Amino acid sequence: LESTDAVRCRTIANNPLVRFQVLDFPGAFDFDEAGFDHVELFATCGAIIFVIDAQDQPHHEVVEYLISTAKIAQAVNPKIHFELFVHKVDGDSYLSDDHKVDIQREIQQMIQQELRDARLSITISYYLTSIYDHTRRVV
Fold this sequence. Notes:
Blueprint: E1 8-15, E2 18-24, H1 31-34, H2 38-42, E3 47-53, H3 60-76, E4 81-87, H4 97-117, E5 124-128
Parallel strand pairs: 3-4, 4-5
Antiparallel strand pairs: 1-2
Helix pairs in contact: 3-4
């Protein structure tokens, strides 16, 4: 899979009951520099799905980015849901299920500490994902 290098908007309309838009942002996207209207962007947003590459350590920089994005989004829309995919837990480094859970726990603890430091009260749902395992579904 190729990395996202620009903001992309995709409309999903599988049937009359399942219709939504996906805005895909590059990992180092700067909302302020890009001139995006935060209110317009997050006011009607139902969820933010954040992806952290489990194999790209340390995770401090991406966690800081997650927290700054969450601050902006929650200020505009307190009802927004946050989902976090801990991605690529299928490499040679993650042969055991215990190791997969350990990396999820490490990331989760780091995020919870940053949320406390930022005085942000949000709930984040965490999921382990893999490009090879398509049995996991998030609805």
